[in-house]
Amino acid sequence: GDSALLVVGGAEESLDASPGTFDLILKKRKGFIRIALETGAHLVPAFSFGENDVYQNLCHDPATRDRLKWIQAKLGFAIPLFMGRGIFNYHFGLLPHRRQITTVIGDPIPVQKWEGSTTSDEYRARVDELHQQYMEALQELYDRNKDIHALSRCANMKFKQ
């Protein structure tokens, strides 16, 4: 079979990424749930520990972050300010730092293809129900693995927006 991977947080989430943190833009993101309903594709929660540790986000100032989000809204893509390592040094450059990234995958959430109207109250309720199930499954997946793969975390995972 075929699989598709969607990065739900997208460009907006990349602007908030910092080492040791897990701030996910997910609360209002429901398009991937609608795609699953329209195609009958199962939802498979997955989480990668260590992704935010390979680059240092240089956008700590809220005013700078707001400007970058404004640029993202105008251009349709984000331009994050980040720092990695160099070829011959480990303190400055564009290459990612050498950090382990571990992806954990949860149990699939079965989704039956929606045959009815996508404007009905029942459809919206089903989207909300599956979205809640996905968020709970992702939280459980994180909680089950955080003490193994996120020992240097500064904060626990939180859902934003």
Name some characteristics of this structure:
single chain; 161 residues; alpha+beta; two-stranded parallel sheet; two-stranded antiparallel sheet; 4 helices; 6 strands; 37% helix; globular
Describe, in plain words, how this protein is organized in 3D.
With 161 residues, this protein is α+β, with helices and mostly antiparallel strands. The protein has 4 helices and 6 strands, in the order αβαββαββαβ. It has helices at residues 10-16, 31-39, 62-75, 121-149; strands at residues 23-25, 46-49, 56-57, 82-83, 102-105, 158-160. The chain has a two-stranded parallel sheet. A two-stranded antiparallel ribbon has the order 2-5. A two-stranded antiparallel ribbon has the order 3-4. The longest helix has 29 residues, at 121-149.
